[in-house]
Amino acid sequence: MEKIDWALPDYIVNCLRLEENLETNCARVKKSQYHIRLEERQKMCFHHGLRERQFLNMFVSLEK
C-alpha cells in the first residue's frame, strides 16, 4: 500500500493563515460606543424575539 500525503496546497494554507491574522487583528480594535450599543440592542431584540422597530416602539410607548 502506498502512503498518501494529505498536505494542503500552499494557497489554502496561506488563506488559513491570513484568516487567523485577520481574526486576531480584528479582536484588538477597540469597539466604539455606537458599536457596543448596537450589539447590546441586537442581543435584546434577539432574546425577546422582537424586530428593531418593535423594540423601539416599546420604549416610545413607555415614555408616554
UniProtKB/TrEMBL annotation:
Signal peptide: none
UniProt-listed Pfam families: Ribosomal_S4 (PF00163)
GO cellular component, one term: ribosome
Keyword line: Ribonucleoprotein, Ribosomal protein, RNA-binding, rRNA-binding
Superkingdom: Eukaryota
Classification via InterPro entries: Ribosomal_uS4_N
GO molecular function: rRNA binding
UniProt domain Small ribosomal subunit protein uS4 N-terminal: residue ranges: 27-59
Family that this chain belongs to: Belongs to the universal ribosomal protein uS4 family.
Protein name from the UniProt record: Ribosomal protein S4/S9 amino-terminal domain protein
Lineage: Eukaryota, Viridiplantae, Streptophyta, Embryophyta, Tracheophyta
